[in-house]
Amino acid sequence: MSKQPLTIAIIGRPNVGKSTLFNRLVGKRLALVDDTPGVTRDRRMGVGKLADLRFDIIDTAGLEEGDSTSLAGRMRLQTEAALGGAHMVLFMIDARAGITPLDRHFASWLRVQKIPVILVANKAEGTRGTEGAYEAYALGLGDPVALSAEHAEGLGDLYSAIDETARLIGVDPRAVEQHTASDTDDAAEDLVEGDLDFEFEDDEADDDVIAFTEERPLRLAVIGRPNAGKSTLINYLVGEERLITGPEAGLTRDSISVDWDYGDIPVRLFDTAGLRRRSRVIEKLEKLSVADTLRAVRFAEIVVLMIDAERGVDKQDIKIASLVVEEGRALVIALNKWDQVEDRLAAQRGVNDILTRSLPQLKGVTTVPVSALTGQGIERLMPAVIDAYELWNSRIRTSEFNRWLAAVTESHPPPAVQGRATRMRYGAQIKARPPTFTIFTNHPAGVPDSYMRYLENEMRRDFGLAGVPLRLYLRASKNPYVDGRRTQKQRLTEKNNRRGK
């Protein structure tokens, strides 16, 4: 029996519960779930577990009829692509709704495909659901598996169906080792595709050299306003139509990860939903998409902000960039649709001026003019990403940092507090990713923000940290007249008491 990992695709018409079953099998809420039909548009992968069975599971968009150029048609092409890499299919219907003409149409299509099909009647709880499950026999796809993905009912029957089908096709669903980029297990902190609830940890921050592996790839999120070209960029990088693209704004709804190799560096790309102004986000589904995008930013190490060069930089772009800075992620700005810009010099200067005025903490951030559609300039994007990553991991020796601190404070001393001089005594870098420093001073609460910005600007200039988020914290230095137990006055009082004074 083959030891290759079993791959299963879940397909069916919209709103039958495919993403709910996907989340149930991977054991995490990776895919967005809502009552609105057609929430899922791109295919999402994860590692499913069902008792002792292990398999790769693919969540797909709802099957709908439509021209290949329409949105429904492009979603169907993504589903067909998922079938091409799967060993078996879970064809899901809604048992409560009964068999629909669309179910019959795609059941007929599946019967001529050279892939085993397990018919799943979801939402089969209750009398109404049971009747719908019996009705599914009419599709001619064998015995239906009646279950409720939401309430975890009927998973035992699904286990038996998957196990039996896997044996028939000669694939071992109990293979100990699953050679997939999205694999994980309960004992390890490996990453599952789309697992944006992973708590970001900085275990590698103290390493001199960060080694990228399939288990720990470079995590790169692509964010921006709707219709900025995020999905188009990722498709160009990976060399295939992995994500749905088109002229419609807001095609991407949940964050989808795609594994890709840049030379010998494994990269996990995250495509995200477009971020509109908060006042325009009204629907519940869009709010869920925005929350998913924000988790992707926290999960990533490097963020590429896509800006439509034709439209220029607006307040929403600045807010998105500020979000990246607040999360402490390295940032690279991609000016997309550069091939359609007439006065490129003016456009470049305009972007740089706005960023410098609005985000002084990102002064010197790298901007790369690209065309995601034609590929123009994209060869310069990943080198800029790698450079930003290296700066993000920068470490400065304590002795070097303190020599610098003494020089800048002597050149421009901090303001006095209530007539008493403020002294920056010493400091050190406490972590990287992003570079974070602690400075010990006698008046930490009295140092104004303007002086802290001065220190940041000097650090960027002197240590070459342009465009990287910095963290500077002030702490009170220890009073040399305190030994941890008694002050000098207390010791003098005790001495006088011993002398009988």
TrEMBL record:
<feature type="binding site">
    <location>
        <begin position="271"/>
        <end position="275"/>
    </location>
    <ligand>
        <name>GTP 2</name>
    </ligand>
</feature>
<keyword id="KW-0547">Nucleotide-binding</keyword>
<dbReference type="InterPro" id="IPR015946">
    <property type="entry name" value="KH_dom-like_a/b"/>
</dbReference>
<dbReference type="GO" id="GO:0005525">
    <property type="term" value="F:GTP binding"/>
</dbReference>
<feature type="binding site">
    <location>
        <begin position="12"/>
        <end position="19"/>
    </location>
    <ligand>
        <name>GTP 1</name>
    </ligand>
</feature>
<dbReference type="GO" id="GO:0042254">
    <property type="term" value="P:ribosome biogenesis"/>
</dbReference>
<feature type="binding site">
    <location>
        <begin position="122"/>
        <end position="125"/>
    </location>
    <ligand>
        <name>GTP 1</name>
    </ligand>
</feature>
<keyword id="KW-0690">Ribosome biogenesis</keyword>
<dbReference type="Pfam" id="PF01926">
    <property type="entry name" value="MMR_HSR1"/>
</dbReference>
<keyword id="KW-0342">GTP-binding</keyword>
<feature type="binding site">
    <location>
        <begin position="59"/>
        <end position="63"/>
    </location>
    <ligand>
        <name>GTP 1</name>
    </ligand>
</feature>
<feature type="domain" description="EngA-type G">
    <location>
        <begin position="6"/>
        <end position="170"/>
    </location>
</feature>
<comment type="similarity">
    <text>Belongs to the TRAFAC class TrmE-Era-EngA-EngB-Septin-like GTPase superfamily. EngA (Der) GTPase family.</text>
</comment>
<dbReference type="InterPro" id="IPR006073">
    <property type="entry name" value="GTP-bd"/>
</dbReference>
<dbReference type="InterPro" id="IPR016484">
    <property type="entry name" value="GTPase_Der"/>
</dbReference>
<feature type="binding site">
    <location>
        <begin position="336"/>
        <end position="339"/>
    </location>
    <ligand>
        <name>GTP 2</name>
    </ligand>
</feature>
<dbReference type="InterPro" id="IPR005225">
    <property type="entry name" value="Small_GTP-bd"/>
</dbReference>
<feature type="domain" description="EngA-type G">
    <location>
        <begin position="218"/>
        <end position="393"/>
    </location>
</feature>
<comment type="function">
    <text>GTPase that plays an essential role in the late steps of ribosome biogenesis.</text>
</comment>
<comment type="subunit">
    <text>Associates with the 50S ribosomal subunit.</text>
</comment>
<dbReference type="InterPro" id="IPR032859">
    <property type="entry name" value="KH_dom-like"/>
</dbReference>
<feature type="binding site">
    <location>
        <begin position="224"/>
        <end position="231"/>
    </location>
    <ligand>
        <name>GTP 2</name>
    </ligand>
</feature>
<keyword id="KW-0677">Repeat</keyword>
<dbReference type="InterPro" id="IPR031166">
    <property type="entry name" value="G_ENGA"/>
</dbReference>
<dbReference type="InterPro" id="IPR027417">
    <property type="entry name" value="P-loop_NTPase"/>
</dbReference>
<dbReference type="Pfam" id="PF14714">
    <property type="entry name" value="KH_dom-like"/>
</dbReference>
<protein>
    <recommendedName>
        <fullName>GTPase Der</fullName>
    </recommendedName>
</protein>
